[in-house]
C-alpha cells in the first residue's frame, strides 16, 4: 500500500525516532511508514491511500504480464463453467424428456441440480421435488 500525505506531519515508525512526512509526498507501507502510523494519518484525514506497492523485485512488465495471465485464466475458467452448465442443462432436458424416470435418472437430476447450485437441492430427497426444482430452473434459463 502507498499513502500520500495531505499535510506535513511528524511521526514515529519505530517508537524511538521521529520522522517528518511531507505534504504531497507518497510513502510506501511498511518500508517508509509503518502501517499503524499510515492508518492513523488516513483516519485523521491528513493522508490518503493512493495505491498498492509493487511486489518486491518485480518490474512493471512482470506485474502486467501476471495480471494478464490471471485475467486469461479467469476468462478460461468462466468459459469452462459456462460450458459445463450448458452440458448439465442439456443432460437434464434429455432425462426429463423420458416418459418414465428411473431411480438413477432422479439421482442424476439431483447431481445436476447440485452442480447448477439450485437452492435446496442438496437437502431434497423427494424425487418429485427434485424433478420440480430442475424443471423450474430450466424454465428460468
Q: From the alpha carbons, calculate the radius of gyration and give it in angstroms.
A: 28 Å
Oligomer: single chain
Number of domains: 2
Number of strands: 5
Largest sheet: 3 strands, antiparallel
**Spatial order of the strands in the main sheet?**
4-1-5
Stretches with pLDDT under 50, minimum 5 residues: none
The secondary-structure class comes to alpha+beta
CA(first)-CA(last) distance:
43 Å
Helix content: 40-55%
Short description:
This protein is of the alpha+beta class and 141 residues long. The chain contains four helices and five strands. The two termini are 43 Å apart.
Describe it for me?
The chain has 141 residues and is of the alpha+beta class. It has two domains: 2-51; 75-140, no CATH class. Helix content is 52%, strand content 14%. It has four helices and five strands, in the order ββββαβααα. The chain has helices spanning 35-44, 60-96, 103-115, 127-140, and strands at residues 2-5, 9-12, 18-21, 26-28, 47-51. The strands form two sheets. It has a three-stranded antiparallel β-sheet. The protein has a two-stranded antiparallel ribbon with strand order 2-3. β2 (9-12) and β3 form a beta hairpin. The chain is elongated. The mean pLDDT is 86.
Amino acid at each position: 500500500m502507498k499513502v500520500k500525505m495531505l499535510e506535513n506531519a511528524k511521526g514515529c515508525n519505530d517508537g524511538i525516532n521521529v520522522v517528518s512526512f511531507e505534504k504531497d509526498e507518497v510513502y510506501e507501507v511498511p518500508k517508509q511508514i509503518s502501517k499503524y502510523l499510515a492508518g492513523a494519518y488516513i483516519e485523521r484525514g491528513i493522508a490518503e491511500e493512493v495505491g498498492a506497492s509493487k511486489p518486491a523485485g518485480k518490474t512493471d512488465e512482470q506485474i502486467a504480464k501476471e495480471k494478464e495471465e490471471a485475467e486469461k485464466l479467469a476468462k478460461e475458467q468462466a468459459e469452462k463453467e459456462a460450458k459445463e452448465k450448458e452440458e448439465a442443462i442439456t443432460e437434464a432436458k434429455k432425462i426429463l424428456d423420458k416418459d418414465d424416470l428411473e431411480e438413477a435418472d432422479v439421482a442424476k437430476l439431483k447431481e445436476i441440480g447440485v452442480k447448477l447450485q439450485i437452492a435446496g437441492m442438496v437437502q431434497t430427497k423427494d424425487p418429485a421435488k427434485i424433478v420440480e426444482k430442475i424443471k423450474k430452473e430450466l424454465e428460468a434459463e
